[in-house]
Amino acid sequence: MSLAEPEIVRRLEKRQPSAYVLASLRGVGQVDLQPGLLTGSAILIALWVSGWETGLFATLGTLIATATAYAFAVDRAGIALGLQGYAGCLTGIALVSSLGNHPATYVLTVVGAIMCTILMAALGTFLAPFGLTPLTAPFCLVSGVMVLGAPSFERVWHGAPAAVSSTTSGDTGLSWNDLWHAFFNNVSQIFLVESWYVGLIMLVGLALAGLRVVLYAAAGSVMGIIAAWALGAPTALIASGIYGYNAVLVAIAIGAVFLANNVWTGVYALFGAAATTGLTASLTSFFKSFGGHTFTWPFILTTWVLMAAVPLLPRLRRSE
């Protein structure tokens, strides 16, 4: 997703066998498009703080996906930057969140992480001519298929916990308590976790990646809240972060990673954050009709569209 300085890769390659562990830690950070080791470490700590099952399955998914990339001899620079681990990380979390902690879930996490690595390569091939990257699409495809098909298998399905995302009706007014919870939950929900203090730790991790990154993350969270409130989304879903996490990802991707830093980029990033908030509702309604899950599809589709338009928008230019 995002790139780092070449010397970082060279340092990682010289530190065998610790390179595997470091690449996996960076893979956790790459969920937020950040390859920084401190960022990945902080986010992983936050995931374990949210619950040992979440931390364990996030770790397992990341380790397996990264190991699979090594086994297939994927480009070592990409592995070192964590670009092969983040989809496995999210897949592990999605599976334990949707299916519960059972022996079958461990098996599915391993299989899912392997499939994420294969899909990462396949989507990379398809998207390369358009100058786009897979983002979290491998995670969405693998987890979506597995969760959707799980009820058909007796040894896999044990009755699911609460759905990752849903739509409800209700009060649309926002109190101060709702606002600050939403601000942090928008960050934690990227990892399918509803916890303001987990979101706070993750924001600290993003701050370690740089001021620009954390400012865009914060701006995306605020824009997600504003857009959801303006559209009349239920208060409970805004406060829980369901409507804002895709906005955070879009703001980081457009504002802090893929485009050069200027005023037009800032406006474009915030526009994307607002647009993906509306798309979240549409896709949630779509997936709900057949028992699917929204996951990070709004972020993926919005970012692909915004980035595909850049070559014909002279005010905007890609990062060097």
| Spatial shape | globular
Q: Which structural class fits the helix and strand makeup?
A: mainly alpha
Largest sheet descriptor: none
Order of helices and strands: HHHHHHHHHHHHHHH
User: What Rg, in angstroms, do the CA atoms define?
Assistant: 18 Å
Q: How many DSSP-defined strands?
A: 0
Proportion in helices = 55-70%
Description of the molecule:
By secondary structure, the protein is mostly helical. It contains 15 helices and no strands. Helix 4 crosses helix 6, helix 4 packs across helix 7 and helix 11 packs antiparallel against helix 13. It is globular, with a radius of gyration of 18 Å. It starts with 5 loop residues before the first helix and ends in an 11-residue tail after the last helix. The N terminus is likely disordered.
Short overview:
This protein is mainly alpha-helical.
Keyword list:
mainly alpha; single chain; 15 helices; globular; 320 residues
Secondary structure layout:
Layout: H1 6-13, H2 18-29, H3 37-50, H4 52-71, H5 76-80, H6 86-99, H7 103-127, H8 137-149, H9 176-188, H10 196-209, H11 211-231, H12 235-240, H13 245-258, H14 263-288, H15 297-309
